[in-house]
């Protein structure tokens, strides 16, 4: 019987409300599949920051290191600047644990009305594979001439061969593994002079290693437009840190699933724990009322199960989500219903 | 009677097919409003590049300088790498002529079926104001360790006080001028460490100079999603060069108008000529068949008229476009009809 050590970080806002529902569903998985989970809870958050001036303790990364996975809620709260909360917790975890893949499904779900017309479940079903450790998210740069008319800020993006090749390779291998051998690269080599032509060059090189996988590439501007105009054309979309960030919010925007989409921040070699978290943020506007939709957190737990090797349980959780959504009897307000966070969590747990 | 010197650069692909229709409509404007246009034609294009190794002659910029405006078709053709064709023509023109505003309407038009559901003309009607001379489109950077496993590329974005403040100010003044005093800033200060917090700081400073204008800001990832989920919330969206590029393709993607949207590359002080060009590219796949939709080029000519101070004529051209689209009798294949490029151009000219 497998047993896993899970670090649980609910974070801020609705993060603390949706996390218990994911644990409830994992309890159901334990009952059904006999998989053991041992949780350690961490209350690191913007509140910690307000009390201590740090988002996590100085040895925070070390305290997380010995876990099989990290399940994260959401980070960020009014009064703490985003770049403080994120560069103090989320982004160091991604980097220290070399979680170089950010993986997010874009899928039209039963029972969810998308903003685009004429699409049915099955029409839109693809994955965004985002580079998660380098690229445009960089601390290289700074300001000069502060406070003068000549003031300027430089911001340097970093694309290494190591970092670029491994994310591209992951995308090709992932596309083969899921039986959709077709990869689209997001680029902007017509405008961004150095990094994006390099990205294209490496895309061609890694594509040549995978001749059985069909390839496409689109500049990010038209690629975003195509996410709306023809989302059915995509299977696996690979992109840099920034472009992947944009695409993996836009995709769920198109399918109406921003409130329910999950994500994995994955270290594929499993040398370090991977982090699984919903795409949505801490949503201070609705926090504290018990009405947040817990599906993003629950689906993230399913992605975690898949990563841990528990494919059957993972598929079962996704099936339970789809079945409850499809039935439509239990819906939180964002889906047009009146159910609470806990009602929806219980309904899904009951389907396992 | 006003008279204007116009530099006409059809460029590549369908650029050469849609340009004559814009000139046809300007002829109708001349007949109706008595406005004189003197054209100088330039055949600079990817073909020029293949013959001469340059996209334009060494003194190209100087040859354009003495015009009141530049009307551009589309640049780019298979076989010439994008970053060559663009950094050899389009981008130098934007920069040398300090066309620091890239302005694009996002508007649901009659007779165009958008990919989003439940929206009618009037619901979506806003402008993207994009910084057009600095930011992420930069030649600063380079490669080291070429061909080794340590290979890496740096790409540096530049945000000056001068460049940031003037585009933000333009956005606020434009919002007031068009009677929609509400500006949304596209940012990513939670992930991009130096440049985007600076962008936010300057946005706050320039907003403080315009207390009568309402402000909003969204990170680019959720902003893109909101373009799809709730496009009616926007009036004027201001963004950096890259983010503005993405948003001003995505917007027309949402309204189904990529094939018909115009853009202005504007030097507001009129110290240099401004350039007006359709959002669409050279579309090599349909070039040479006389079926391209000329509305993007014609609408660009309308934006040019507006910039030149011919507001009545400009409004008349836009009205003619909407009237022909609304009537629906003359449609090119992209709009579901069988009309030719010239048919549609003639129909619009006849409405002036
Ligand atoms: C062709 C390309 C360099 C250009 C840009 O990104 O500026 C285009 O997408 C545009 O928006 O005019
Ligand atoms: C919060 C922010 C820094 C983060 C990102 O941009 O990576 C978020 O948008 C995400 O996608 O996980």
Write a short abstract of this structure.
By secondary structure, chain A is an alpha/beta fold. Helix content of chain A is 41%, strand content 21%.
Indicate the CATH architecture of the largest domain in chain A. Answer: 3-Layer(aba) Sandwich
N-end to C-end Cα span of chain A: 18 Å
Shape of chain A: globular
CATH superfamily label of the largest domain in chain A:
Isopropylmalate Dehydrogenase
Radius of gyration of chain A: 20 Å
* Multimeric status of the protein: homodimer
How are the strands of the largest sheet of chain A arranged?
2-1-3-12-11-4-5-10-8-9
> Uncertain segments of chain A of ≥5 residues (pLDDT<50)?
none
Q: What count of structural domains of chain A?
A: 2
Distinct ligands, ions and cofactors found in the model: 3-isopropylmalic acid
Strand content of chain A: 15-25%
Helix tally of chain A equals: 11
CATH fold description of the largest domain in chain A: Isopropylmalate Dehydrogenase
Output the structural class of chain A: alpha/beta
Measured by residues with Cβ under 8 Å of the partner chain's Cβ, the largest interface is: A-B, 67 and 68 residues
């Amino acid at each position: 019987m497998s047993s896993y050590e899970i670090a649980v970080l609910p974070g801020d806002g609705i993060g603390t409300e949706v996390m218990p529902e994911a644990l409830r569903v994992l309890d159901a998985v334990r009952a059904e599949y006999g998989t053991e989970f041992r949780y350690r809870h961490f209350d690191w958050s913007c509140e910690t920051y307000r009390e201590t001036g740090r988002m996590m303790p100085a040895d925070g990364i070390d305290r997380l290191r010995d876990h099989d996975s990290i399940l994260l809620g959401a980070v960020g709260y009014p009064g703490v600047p985003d770049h403080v909360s994120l560069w103090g917790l989320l982004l160091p975890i991604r980097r220290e644990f070399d979680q170089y893949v950010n993986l997010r499904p874009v899928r039209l779900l039963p029972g969810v009305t998308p903003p685009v017309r004429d699409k049915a479940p099955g029409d839109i079903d693809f994955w965004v594979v985002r580079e998660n450790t380098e690229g445009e998210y960089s601390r290289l740069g700074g300001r000069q001439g502060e406070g003068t008319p000549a003031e300027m800020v430089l911001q340097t993006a970093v694309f290494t061969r190591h970092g670029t090749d491994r994310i591209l390779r992951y995308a090709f291998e992932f596309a083969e593994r899921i039986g959709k051998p077709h990869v689209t690269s997001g680029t902007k080599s017509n405008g961004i002079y150095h990094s994006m032509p390099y990205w294209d060059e490496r895309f061609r090189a890694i594509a040549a290693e995978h001749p059985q996988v069909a390839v496409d590439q689109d500049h990010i501007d038209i690629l975003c437009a195509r996410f709306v105009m023809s989302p059915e054309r995509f299977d696996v979309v690979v992109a840099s840190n920034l472009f992947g960030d944009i695409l993996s919010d836009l995709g769920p925007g198109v399918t109406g699933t921003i409130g329910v989409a999950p994500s994995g921040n994955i270290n594929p070699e499993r040398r370090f724990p991977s982090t699984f978290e919903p795409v949505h943020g801490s949503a201070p506007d609705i926090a504290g009322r018990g009405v947040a939709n817990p599906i993003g957190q629950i689906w993230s737990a399913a992605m975690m199960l898949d990563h841990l090797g528990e494919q059957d349980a993972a598929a079962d959780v996704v099936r339970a989500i789809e079945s409850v959504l499809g039935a439509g009897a239990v819906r939180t307000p964002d889906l047009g219903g009146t159910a609470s966070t806990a009602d929806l969590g219980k309904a899904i747990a009951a389907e396992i």
